[in-house]
Design a protein that fits this description.
The chain is mainly alpha-helical. The protein is globular, with a radius of gyration of 22 Å. The chain folds into two domains: 220 residues, no CATH class; 198 residues, no CATH class.
Length: 438
C-alpha cells in the first residue's frame, strides 16, 4: 500500500473542501424540486413533493450510521495496511445497504401509513405524496448503499469522488426535473422518476469509483466478509451511532415542538434561524470528516502522535470556519433573514434571537469536531453515553429556563446541549488517545 502523504494543512484541506462543495449542492436540488412543481400553479403538488421527500429522508436518515461506521472502520483498516479488510468492508456496506433498501420496498405500505399517521395531510396531498414515494422507494437500495460507498471513499481520503457522485446525481436530477415536469408535464411523478434515475446513476458512479477494490480478492472473500467477530463489531459500532443520532435528532425535534407553543411568529423565526445551523453544519462537516479519516488511519497505524496532530489540525480549520461564520452571521444575519422571509413580524422576531446564531458556530465547534474524532476512532460507546448525558442536561435546562425565559430559554437550552456534548466528549478524549500506543 502506498505511503500516505505527510499530515499537514494541505492534506486536511484536500479531504475537507470537496465535502464542503458537495454539501453546497444539496440545497440547490431541493430548491429546484420545489421550483419545478411550483410552476404547475397548484399548492398540492408542492406539498406532496415536500412531505414525500421529508418522509423518505427521515427513513433513510436512520441508516446514516452506515456512512459513519464504515468511515471509522475502513480508515482504521487502511491505516493498519490491511487492504483485504478495506475491500471486505466495502462488500459489507453494500450488502447492508442493499438489504435495508429491499426491506423498505417490501415494507413500504406500513412505513408510509405510519408516516401519515404522524404527519397527516389533505387527501389530495397525501394521494400525490404516495404516488411520489411509490416511485422513489424503488431506489432505496441505491440511496442507502451510497451511504456505505461515501463512508468508504472518505476513509481512503477520496473525497473528490464523493463530490463527483453528488454533482452527477444532483445535476442529472435537476436536468430530468426540467425535462419530465416542465417539458413532458409528468408532474409529481416526474420529480420522483428523476430522483429514482439519479440515485441509481449515483450508485453506478460510486461503484465505478470503487473499482480498484473489486480488483483485489478481499471483497469476495466470503469467510472474511461474513466473519462473525467483524460483523458483531460493526453491528455494535453502528448501533451506538444510531442511538446517539436518534437522541440528537430528538433534541432538534423537541426544539421545534416546544417552539410551537410560543405562537406562529416565533415558530417561523426559529425555523429560519435553524437554517443558520444547517449552514454551520455544512461548513464544519468537511473538517469533521477529515478528522474521521485521519484519526482512524492514525489509530489503525498505532501512531499516537499522528492521531493527536490529526485532531488538532482539523479542529484548527474548524475553529477558523466557526469564527468566519460567527462574523458573517453578526454582520449579515439581518440581510440573510430578509432573504428568507418577507413577513415583517417574522423578520423582527428573528432579529431578536439572531445573537444565538452568532454564538452557535462557536458553541457547536467542539461537539462537531469531537464527533469526527470519536467516529474515526470508533469510540462509539463514548459517543452514545455522552449523548445520553447531554440530552439529560438539555432536558434539565429546558425545565428550568423555558418557563422563566420563554423562547430565549429554549435557545439557551439548545446551546447548552452543544456545550454539554463538547465537554463530555472532551473528558473522554484522553482514553481515546491512549488506545493508540506508540
Amino acid at each position: 500500500m502506498a505511503e500516505a502523504p505527510a499530515l499537514g494543512h494541505r492534506r486536511v484541506l484536500a479531504i475537507a473542501l470537496p465535502i464542503v462543495l458537495s454539501n453546497a449542492t444539496v440545497p440547490i436540488l431541493g430548491a429546484v424540486d420545489t421550483g419545478v412543481v411550483g410552476q404547475l400553479g397548484e399548492a398540492a403538488p408542492i406539498g406532496a413533493v415536500g412531505i414525500g421527500a421529508i418522509i423518505l429522508t427521515a427513513v433513510y436518515w436512520i441508516f446514516g450510521f452506515l456512512r459513519m461506521g464504515v468511515t471509522g472502520l475502513a480508515s482504521q483498516a487502511h491505516g493498519a495496511g490491511d487492504r483485504a479488510e478495506v475491500e471486505a468492508m466495502l462488500s459489507r456496506a453494500l450488502l447492508i445497504g442493499g438489504a435495508a433498501g429491499l426491506a423498505m420496498i417490501v415494507l413500504q405500505v406500513p412505513i408510509f401509513w405510519g408516516a401519515f399517521q404522524v404527519s397527516p395531510a389533505s387527501a389530495e396531498v397525501e394521494a400525490m405524496a404516495r404516488d411520489y414515494m411509490g416511485i422513489r422507494v424503488f431506489s432505496a437500495p441505491a440511496a442507502i448503499s451510497l451511504y456505505g460507498i461515501t463512508g468508504w471513499l472518505i476513509a481512503l481520503e477520496r473525497t473528490r469522488g464523493v463530490l463527483v457522485i453528488q454533482v452527477v446525481m444532483n445535476g442529472l436530477n435537476i436536468a430530468l426535473d426540467l425535462l419530465f415536469v416542465l417539458g413532458l408535464g409528468w408532474g409529481v411523478e416526474g420529480v420522483a422518476l428523476a430522483t429514482f434515475i439519479a440515485e441509481w446513476s449515483g450508485l453506478a458512479v460510486g461503484l465505478w469509483l470503487c473499482r480498484d477494490a473489486f480488483a483485489g480478492p478481499g471483497w469476495r472473500d466470503a469467510a472474511r466478509v461474513f466473519d462473525a467477530l467483524r460483523l458483531k463489531h460493526m453491528a455494535r459500532v453502528n448501533g451506538d451511532i444510531l442511538i446517539r443520532s436518534v437522541l440528537l435528532q430528538a433534541i432538534f425535534v423537541s426544539f421545534l415542538f416546544f417552539g410551537a407553543d410560543f405562537g406562529d411568529v416565533p415558530l417561523a423565526a426559529n425555523q429560519i434561524l435553524l437554517q443558520f445551523l444547517h449552514i454551520t453544519a455544512y461548513a464544519l462537516d468537511g473538517f469533521a470528516f477529515a478528522a474521521e479519516t485521519l484519526v482512524g488511519q492514525a489509530l489503525g497505524a498505532k501512531a499516537r502522535a499522528r492521531l493527536r496532530r490529526a485532531a488538532i489540525l482539523t479542529s484548527l480549520w474548524g475553529l477558523g470556519s466557526s469564527l468566519a461564520l460567527a462574523a458573517a452571521f453578526a454582520l449579515a444575519g439581518g440581510q440573510i433573514i430578509d432573504v428568507m422571509t418577507t413577513a415583517p413580524e417574522v423578520r423582527e422576531v428573528a432579529r431578536i434571537y439572531l445573537p444565538y446564531m452568532v454564538i452557535a458556530p462557536l458553541a457547536g465547534l467542539a461537539p462537531w469536531m469531537l464527533d469526527g474524532v470519536f467516529i474515526g476512532a470508533t469510540r462509539t460507546a463514548d459517543m452514545r453515553n455522552m449523548m445520553v448525558v447531554s440530552a439529560a442536561i438539555y432536558a434539565l435546562a429546558l425545565a428550568i429556563l423555558m418557563p422563566a425565559f420563554g423562547n430565549h430559554g429554549l435557545w439557551v437550552s439548545l446551546l447548552i446541549s452543544f456545550i454539554a456534548r463538547g465537554v463530555t466528549l472532551g473528558l473522554r478524549y484522553p482514553a481515546l488517545e491512549a488506545r493508540a500506543a506508540g
